[in-house]
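Changelog note: in this version the structure field was regenerated for every chain. One regenerated record is shown below for reference.
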Amino acid sequence: MIFRMRMIMFVAAVLFGTVGLKIFTLETKAETFVQNEATATTNSQNDSTKTIIDKTANISIPERYLTKKFLLGKVNQRQDPDFIEIAPQHTPYKLRLLKETYSAFINMYEAAKKDGIELKIISAARTYNDQCLHWNAKWKKLTPHPDLNDDLKKTLYLLRYCSLPGISRHHWGTEIDLNSLKPSYFETQTGKKVYDWLLQNANSFGFYQPYTSRTSPNRTKGFFEEKWHWSYRPLSAPFLVKYKELVTPDDIIGFTGDNTVKYLNLNEWLNSINPDLIIE
């Protein structure tokens, strides 16, 4: 199947005089994803070759999204035209998302509104520097405690709910936190209705909860449950594949406690997610 698609793309390139363009293909596991879940075709927009990844959502992935710099959040999201500022009716803050993610969220927002459910984005895309500031602030607020008497213990404590800079999925512009960051909110009558609606409907808009219950499959390690965190799978699933190909622990530096990274198995946080977000 992959061979046939590549032959078709080559013939098309010859016919239209674009042989010189680089045809991007996700390799290994991501290539299987293209074969099984997508009709892989290419087009040229703004001099950037793209590959169709998800036929249901009709999402194409610009090659620039699949670079180490982008996946580490080391682009200027505030000036990048691919990151859209979220409108005031969808968030009380100044936040951004990848345009594809935001478009899908708007569709979900409108559907939820018809069902009497209000969805508010309270956190979205973050740069590497944003996450460094976020992590450092949490580290500074740690209360002295005998169980937190060295840097590694502090890091592991914060990693229950806070990501290290560089391994945060929020760098990608595919992640949204909805309504509240407090687990207790989702135990209220309103919070339960919101979460139940998301469980029943979010997948149909491409959104999946990465950090499900610790009793769920593949969730005995990694971050604690986050009912507020939802990921736009048509982009984030292939992003994770490419991230693991490109990023190493040596890239995770520049924040308080970064001396502990060498003692961590980062895959425990990267891979201990909802299996629906992993390309096998």
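Spot check on this record: The mean pLDDT is 85. Residues 173 and 238 are 13 Å apart (CA to CA).
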